[in-house]
Amino acid sequence: MKSTDMMLDVTSATGLTGQTFIAATLHLPDDMNNRPSHLIFAVHGGGYSRMYWHPPFADDSYSFAKWFTDQGKAVLAIDMLGMGESTRPEPESSLSGAIIAAAHAEALRQVIAQWGAAVDVTGLGHSMGGMMIIAQAGLQAATHPAMNRVAVLGWANEPMVLGDTDVASLQAGLIPSGYIATPRAPMRKLFYGDDVPLELIEADEAHASTTPVTMGRDALTPGIVHQAAASISVPVLVVQSVIDTSPTPEKEPGYFSASPAVELQILEGAAHCQNFAGTRERHWAQLNNWIDRNL
């Protein structure tokens, strides 16, 4: 796998004062001279960064990016605006979900513009990243559909289940503005199955990112992306693990009413963070099969 880090200037798309950058890594297959014809645009969840897709603290068997580049696909992993190595705008209260989605869309647009060939794009978001990929897809539905299909992993449009905590408790703990840490201890039961090694959990938690309060507040607001979900007119995949955020996964596909094809996959033997599960390769294979069937 060949990996290239980049900082993408998205200032013009955000309207924020000061330069605004999205940090990204483009992962490409080792043995291809030309750019692959398929790109996965991967957006991590709250408290994470683009390392979720290729964790430096774990062996390659935990790398989503390595597995998919081995299948001949490219992976563009970004740090969401305000997270990881991307710009943290100040004041944080100047952010909105629409601004963040526009920044991500501009980052993807720039990479596609430099691709040098036709490219088919799967937009993929995990957890809070699922919320943001829905928002981005809804935004693009009103302009141009840069994503040919959308995969929503571990995000619930139904009222969410959140491990050893709940929406009301997390809402009560939010500060008015700023960047906050995800309360990891109450999330362990939700994030990791019993088969995930403790040393891996601790390393994952040690590499956590803070999250803009704006995104935290949005993620805890019921129905926040229902309208955007209903406007998505490309194929949609919904993935929930057996331990995950939706209390009724079978209801999740119904939120994507404009999509010509919605599929639900339930990943056995896994909790919310599918990339750390013992069944992660089954998850990746099912996802890859869905992409290939919807090309």
How are the SSEs placed, and which strands pair?
Blueprint: E1 2-9, H1 11-14, E2 21-28, E3 38-43, H2 64-70, E4 74-78, H3 97-113, E5 120-126, H4 128-141, E6 149-153, H5 167-172, E7 179-180, H6 184-191, H7 198-206, E8 211-212, H8 213-219, H9 226-230, E9 236-241, E10 262-267, H10 280-293
Parallel strand pairs: 3-4, 3-5, 5-6, 6-9, 9-10
Antiparallel strand pairs: 1-2, 2-4, 7-8
Helix pairs in contact: 3-4
Description:
The structure is a single chain. Helix content is about 30%, strand content about 20%. By secondary structure, it is of the alpha/beta class. The chain has a single domain (about 1-295), classed as 3-Layer(aba) Sandwich (Rossmann fold). Strands 1-2-4-3-5-6-9-10 form an 8-stranded mixed beta sheet. α4 (about 130-140) links the parallel β5 and β6 (about 150-155). The chain is globular, with a radius of gyration of 17 Å. The chain starts with a strand and ends with a helix.
